[in-house]
Amino acid sequence: MARSKAKPELHWISGSPYAWRVMLALEVKQVPYVSRLLESSKGDLKTQDFLRLNPRGQVPVLTHGDYVLTESLAILAYLDRQFPTPPIFGEYAYETAQVWRVISEFLSYLNGPMGRVVTPIYAGKAAEKAEDIQAAMRSVHSELARLEQSLGLAPWLATDGISAADLTLYPSVRSLMRAASKPAALALGLGLLPLRSAYPRLAAWVQEIERIPGYERTYPPHWREAQAA
Amino acid sequence: MARSKAKPELHWISGSPYAWRVMLALEVKQVPYVSRLLESSKGDLKTQDFLRLNPRGQVPVLTHGDYVLTESLAILAYLDRQFPTPPIFGEYAYETAQVWRVISEFLSYLNGPMGRVVTPIYAGKAAEKAEDIQAAMRSVHSELARLEQSLGLAPWLATDGISAADLTLYPSVRSLMRAASKPAALALGLGLLPLRSAYPRLAAWVQEIERIPGYERTYPPHWREAQAA
Lengths: 229, 229
Fold this sequence. Notes:
Strand order of the largest sheet of chain A: 2-1-3-4
Radius of gyration of chain A: 18 Å
Strand content of chain A: 5-15%
Oligomer: homodimer
Distance between the termini of chain A: 47 Å
Largest interface: A-B, 27 and 28 residues
Largest sheet of chain A: 4 strands, mixed
């Protein structure tokens, strides 16, 4: 079919953890793709053309031939079916379950509290929201401790190799680390940095992911610019 | 392998939408299983034996031979790999993506607001929390309207046949309907019931799911008792 021969096109914005998951999966599977970097501040997510692709006006959107795909986890599941090597949802039924278990637990217990930490810090409201940030950090620490423990048994979160669980959690963990490194966040004493002291196995896992060939292509360009400035 | 010949055992509690998803999937796939009905009020979720199965102390837990599986979506993915007929995550890559898209959208946009409606009603705090319930209902209506629209194109939410998307959303929709039928909720005028007036296609979809052979076995026993009382 023509559709499976066309290169996928990924619509993304810099720093979106949701889009980052998909970029990492494309690198892991070594799938060549066309990159469409959008800018939210320029209204790129609200154009008629983009809203036709995703009425919710959000990235990532992956187009592949006739197909238009939204929601990062759905795109990961699609990529694993279209480009099966290496598998990112496990090879056996039990591995598939472990990948979805880790992702489900992340969504139910960690993603929300992480947002309550990261969002106010990026919005310049760290001092104002300090109390809720500290409350959310208690949940974050409790979940990170579980992940740290599981990494004592295996180098990856769900299976023997890198999986969609690692690719789903990494951008959010990385985004939390970046937020925690802002001066206003450092003042709060979140107990997260340096990660290698607080969570040494998680720090090693972060480094392992950053060794994926092609990882550099997925790194948020505006983070790099901020570092260079 | 012995493990795939053993009957799966499902640990569940009456009325848990998460456990109900798995029970429906077992019926759709006609997988015989051993039912372990637990009672939260008797402390069944806090026993050492149960916490060994799931340290989070939550249902559903499915054991299958040597495997212990937690998190309802992970269990659905597992069942689809172990018992592939009929497929509940689609036959083709694009269908798989549609199933996970609907589930992801439900988790991101509908599940939270539904909880803000259902939880206070069941807790006898409908009047006290009326303002937040009404605010949450605006999101619920906006998402139900999207589902209603999609059901205009097909009888099921994600693929040509019943899928994990239908099985995931149904128990939550049904639980919302039950909460909305309580006298304290009726007083709030949530605009949901009768469902066949507010959302006729969604009402037809509910009926369609309730025609699954074996559906009666999945119906929460304490709901039935409440009706009989």
